[in-house]
Design a protein that fits this description.
By secondary structure, this protein is α/β, with parallel strands linked by helices. It has helices spanning 3-6, 12-22, 35-38, 57-64, 69-74, 83-94, 109-117, 129-143, 154-170, 185-197, 213-220, 243-252, 261-275, 281-292, 315-321; strands spanning 31-33, 42-46, 76-79, 99-103, 121-124, 146-147, 176-180, 202-208, 255-259, 301-305. The chain has 15 helices and ten strands.
Length: 323
């Protein structure tokens, strides 16, 4: 990798610095051995146990902690399907910044109430990432707020990359890491961390079949905006990937696979009943790929459980989808 190329991407130094920065709030999430239940070497990286119930706290805290005192005093804003919004609310409160979160009208109530509980002002706008982005940009201009984007920013990517560092330390013999993709922030950071440290580890992105904007973009060789998306994985429904994230995936990720909603629903139930890990559909998407891929991925395999914001009373509806 030349200096000109490497400067485009998140470095190990960036991710290591982010790890020190987020230590006051983000946890080192556990790696749960699910091999016996899966019948193959499979480990679950449980980001569902982070503050806010998802990996998003890593990037949100990494970014807000680097803002100036004046920027934090004036406040921050983001646009989110839910988990990033909660993370921004938690990080902003911890760092003394007011927070505004623009969420879709279709956001699960548990995510809306989660962000509100942590002190954020909630604005409901539209149903797509582009709707939320337009409203957030308008509010930021009118109110002097600093945007904390959900995925397309180097500080966000570096924060999410700390997941990759932890995986390599917790399971040095890992052969394949499966990472869910929405806008691409998580896989950008994880892939950068892993490929810089151990290029032989395979990094595979996983998207819902009904919301595969990153795969469509990689296949086309340029960023593609989907006309619509549809999936039970509400956190993975970006109609287009971030520009920075697309570049990272092109450079670092080995391949992208898709899974249908039935496989995701099965994975929600399997993850809970076999491993005692509560995963929302977005969080179970990488597990779905691990359980259904034929032939199986080279192991040991780590599947990132990216979020767990699911009311346990809703588990039954995912069981019914597959009966």
């Amino acid at each position: 990798m030349t200096d000109s190329v490497s400067s485009t991407f998140t470095s190990i130094a960036d991710i290591t610095a982010a790890r020190r920065r987020i230590a006051p709030l983000a946890k080192v999430s556990p790696l749960v051995d699910a091999s016996a239940a899966a019948g193959r070497p499979l480990f679950l990286k449980c980001e569902s146990l982070q503050p806010g119930g998802a990996f998003k706290i890593r990037g949100a805290y990494n970014m807000i902690s680097q803002l100036s005192d004046d920027e934090r005093r004036r406040g921050v804003i983001t646009y989110s399907s839910g988990n990033h919004g909660q993370a921004v609310a938690i990080a902003a409160r911890a760092l003394g910044a007011p927070a505004v979160v623009v969420m879709p009208t279709t956001a699960p109530r548990i995510k809306i109430e989660g962000a509100r509980h942590h002190g954020a002002e909630i604005i409901l706008e539209g149903t797509t990432t582009l709707h939320r982005l337009a409203r957030a940009e308008q509010e930021a201009r009118e109110r002097g707020l600093t945007m904390v984007p959900p995925f397309d920013h180097e500080w966000i990517v570096a924060g999410q990359g700390t997941v990759g560092l932890e995986i390599l330390e917790q399971l040095p013999q890992v052969a394949t890491v499966l990472v869910p993709i929405g806008g691409g922030g998580l896989i950008s950071g994880v892939a950068a961390a892993i490929k810089h440290a151990n290029p032989s580890v395979q990094v595979v992105g996983v998207e819902p079949a009904g919301a595969a904007s990153m795969k469509a973009s990689i296949d086309a060789g340029h960023i593609v905006t989907l006309e619509r998306t549809h999936s039970i994985a509400d956190g993975l429904m970006a109609v287009r990937p971030g520009s920075l994230n697309f570049a990272h995936v092109q450079h670092f990720v080995d391949r992208i696979v898709t899974v249908d909603d039935e496989a995701i629903a099965d994975a929600v139930i399997w993850t809970f009943t076999k491993s005692d890990v509560l995963a929302e559909p977005s969080g179970a998407t990488a597990v779905a790929a691990a359980l259904t891929a034929e032939p199986a991925f080279e192991g040991p395999v780590v599947a990132v459980v990216s979020g767990g914001n699911l009311d346990p009373s809703e588990l039954g509806k995912y069981r019914r989808r597959t009966e």
